[in-house]
Amino acid sequence: MTNIDELVATLAKDATAVKPAPHPFVLSLQWIGAAAAYLAISLTFSGLRPDLLERFHSFWFGAEIFTLLGIFLVSSLSAALLAFPDLHQKRLLAFAPILPFTLFLAIILFSWRADNPPAPLPVHSFECTLSIMLMTLLPAVWTFYSMRKYASTHYRLAGSVALLSAFSVGALWLRLHEVNDSIAHVIEWHYLPMLAIGLIGLWLGRVVLKW
Amino acid sequence: MAGTTLPLEMAVYGAMTGYYSSVLFSNSAPVTDTGDNLAALMQRSLSGDTQAYAVLLKETARLLRPFLAKRLFAGSEVDDVLQEILLSIHKARHTYDGERPYKPWAYAIAKFRLQDHLRAHYADHLHDAEDISGLEEILPDDVTETGFSYESISVEVEKLPEKQATILRLMHQDGYTSKEIAEKMGMNESAVKVAAHRAYKVLRKQLERS
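^ Those are the sequences you sent over. The predicted structure of the assembly is below.
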């Protein structure tokens, strides 16, 4: 009997009935639902910015929030697909966050150009990044915890996308809460840290999701 | 149950020896090709059918062996990686729902484990931090210094995997360069050097032990 035969016999002997993992669409819906509830509760406690309705009359603000929401939704879906070894055979969807990110980048650039004369910078700076990070912690923990139950073969990318999805929840919260019209500040202290978060996610994915 | 499991295994095995042949499972609809068979076997395995699971793993091993043999140098490595893959398939079997094709799922895990293996292998090489070409120059000296000649260790060389033994024989007995061996054996030069390096490591251990 070869080693392979022995291994097969052992594995077959140990095999019990297994409940298949939920479909990634269901999984991502669970994450999105939980994150949406978390966002709603946080906004209830912290409060919406008083000029929110007025700000939505600005095309670029609306587009920014809309694409940020898109990043959150699509990256949640992508993270769920990336948790499966074969990406649930939906490779295109797994890499779909590229689209909202590209759109978001373009919108931010146009917003920056449209910010003329520039809105005054707020007095605070890194506090925004810190707040977003704190807000990100909980969704990041539950997403990673959930993803660990599966078997990602793209663990670095999965970690990065999962963390970006969680970060977008924090970014959305702050944009809907903070009275701040300076796009320069928003780029510097809200969105540029996203790059660092993406890189941290690559590392975290390797540490947490490797199996 | 015991009466139905043996015919199942025989039926599946019979069908799997030829592609696109039809097989009728004892309590399921007919399936038409090997991919379907594997998916059906996995579905049965997920519901706790150990016989179906054993057949599935054996068939998966049969499917993946040529895939690994093409990408790995030594036969022992193929077996090692194959075992890793089967263990991973076992661990990740809950991520397969039986609704999508089985082969892409299994190959995704196989590629992942193969990459892991190759990454570890090359990291190990870097860790050794000894230039292979340097080793080629140094090692024969060491062997003569300690009183060894190729002839005196030829018995140990013959115990190596066939490819490694041939490379060392050509290199040290017949005086071929690694480039010439590569041409002769239809390999690339770096693969010859890596094989020689591995053989040196094994020999060194064996000689140290004796």
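The CA atoms of residues 96 and 158 of chain A lie 13 Å apart. Residues 59-82 of chain A form the longest helix (24 residues).

Shout if you want it in another format.
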